[in-house]
Each structure stands twice: as C-alpha cells, then as structure tokens.
UniProtKB/TrEMBL annotation:
This is GntR family transcriptional regulator. The keyword DNA-binding applies. Residues 11-79 form the HTH gntR-type domain. SUPFAM superfamilies: Winged helix' DNA-binding domain.
Length: 136
C-alpha cells in the first residue's frame, strides 16, 4: 500500500491516513476482507505515532470502512447505510460547492471535475472486474 502523507499539510495526519485508505478502497487497491497493517506496523512504516494510526483506524471503524477484530486487527469491511452515506456526501459537497462558487468555479467546471474524479475511481474497479472475468 502506497501512502502519501504530507507532513507539512495543515490537515491532520490521521485524517490524511484515513483519506488515503478510503481512496485505496475506492480504487480497489485495498479490498473488502483485506487486513490493514497493525497499528505498530503502520506507525513504523509512515514514521508517526501509534496513537495517530489508532485514531485513523477508529474513525474508519466509526464510518463503516473497517471492523476491528482482536485476532486479525483492522479488517476492511464495508458496512454502510446508503441513505446516510448520500446524506453525508451531500453535506460535504455543500461546503465544497459553496467554496468553489466563492472562487467563481462554474457549474460546467464542477461537473467536469466530478466526472474526472469519479472515472478515476471506477476505472480501477472496472479493470479489476475485467481481469477477474478473463481469468475465470
């Protein structure tokens, strides 16, 4: 798993780690059932405090991306309520769109960005499905 943590960013490291794991799941680099590195392993790998990793894993658990298993550690388990997920996405987009409007980003530019980003995540999933179909 390749993680891109920016130690100079204003964004908290645990949030960056959380986001990187979610992006890994979305691109199918991390799959449901995969076990994430232990808190100690991840902290050593990134060079951060174990409490920071623990906080990221706890947030991922609360958000339904992982379950914590005493024997296996943090296991990717996509447990979600789609209605709630749409509501949360709407809240996040609301702020981002207001931010963009204040910077004169047009509706067309927003739609283009959304399409590009959506394609980036779904392209990896489609390629994996095609590869599995060819092998099967």
């Amino acid at each position: 798993m390749v993680l891109k943590i920016d130690f100079n960013s204003d964004e908290a490291i645990y949030i960056q780690l959380r986001n990187q794991i979610i992006m890994g799941i979305a691109t199918d680099m991390i799959r449901e059932g995969d076990t994430l590195p232990s808190v100690r392993q991840m902290a050593d790998y990134i060079g951060i405090n174990m409490h920071t990793v623990n906080k990221a894993y706890s947030v991922l658990r609360q958000e339904g991306f992982v379950k914590l298993d005493r024997r296996r550690g943090a296991v990717v388990s996509l447990n979600y309520d789609k209605i709630q997920a749409v509501r949360e996405l709407s809240q996040n987009l609301d702020v981002m769109l207001a931010w963009g409007i204040c910077r004169h980003i047009t509706r067309e530019e927003v739609h283009q960005l959304v399409d590009e980003i959506f394609d980036r995540y779904t392209r990896g999933c489609m390629e994996t499905e095609e590869k599995e179909a060819d092998e099967g």
